[in-house]
Design a protein that fits this description.
about 280 residues; alpha/beta; 8-stranded mixed beta sheet; 10 helices; about 35% helix
Length: about 280
């Protein structure tokens, strides 16, 4: 597994899949990037450079825990670009990783060629997702056999009285089958400190970030999953509207991991955008 050194001396690792023009991929979580795999076969179209964020996967744990903060991780992405020798790069961010990709793009707009945001988190741009929005979306799954237990757990979490996050996992997939069970096990973050400090105070500056995105000139894809409880389609439409000209795609039947729910459809959308 190739590695490089971050500006503070932390040794960081990344995976590669496929050949051709590179696409730098930033995972969510922060979690081991293993859960991204080759993004359903997108590696047949692009060479995927998949970063393990510090303290996850095979990247080292930093000496300074405050460096887990999202805005400070921008320097790691820039160090990866320099390591790869790319004057400009295409960037893909999934879930919480999209917050990092957005902050990188705002700080280094001249280094970004295309931007793909896959079921992105919204903290970097300050878009709240109300509990009622999640609840209404969840109720569309009421004919699923797992729904009663999962919805009960969701209600408790929404009301601040529950903590059974595993119980609501089915809401993040278009199909809660054996493959989804297996994937969920790989997507679970393993470094609680990294997760807790990712969004620490000062990590995000929503107002200037939104202002910068309002003048964004490079192509943007924002892909939403029809059933994604983490990044509901209504919130994703508001996110896309922050850009002058973003392509918003709703993948039907998909949840938070669209390359797992329908790899062919996901790859077709992403490959068409990336070119």
């Amino acid at each position: 597994m190739p590695t490089f050194t971050a500006p503070d001396g932390t040794r960081l690792a990344y995976r590669t899949h496929g050949e051709g023009d590179p696409l730098v991929c930033i995972p969510g979580g922060p979690a081991d990037s293993l859960y991204l795999g080759d993004l359903g076969g997108l590696s047949a179209h692009r060479r995927l450079i998949v970063l393990d964020l510090r303290g996850t996967g095979r990247s080292a744990i930093p000496e300074d825990a405050s460096s887990y903060r999202c805005d400070r991780l921008v320097d790691d992405v820039e160090a990866l670009r320099e390591h790869l020798g790319l004057p400009r790069m295409d960037l893909l961010g999934h879930s919480a990783g999209a917050n990092l990709v957005i902050q990188y793009a705002v700080r280094h707009p001249e280094r970004v060629r295309k931007l793909a945001l896959i079921t992105p988190g919204t903290r970097a741009v300050g878009l709240p997702i109300p509990g009622d929005m999640r609840r209404e979306l969840a109720q569309r799954r009421q004919n699923e056999p797992w729904f009663p237990a999962a919805f009960s757990a969701l209600e408790a979490i929404t009301q601040g009285t529950g903590t059974d996050w595993d119980a609501i996992n089915p809401f993040f997939y278009g199909r809660w089958d054996t493959e989804a069970h297996r994937h969920q096990a790989t997507a679970r973050p393993g470094n609680d400190e990294a997760v807790a400090l990712f969004g620490a105070e000062g990590a995000f500056a929503p107002e200037p970030t939104r202002a910068a995105l309002g003048a964004w000139q490079t192509p943007v894809l924002l892909l939403a999953g029809e059933f994604d409880l983490n990044s509901p389609p209504a919130a994703m439409a508001r996110f896309a509207a922050l850009f002058p000209d973003a392509t918003l795609v709703l993948q039907s039947g998909a949840g938070h991991y669209p390359w797992v729910d329908d790899a062919d459809r996901f790859v077709a959308t992403a490959a068409a955008f990336l070119g």
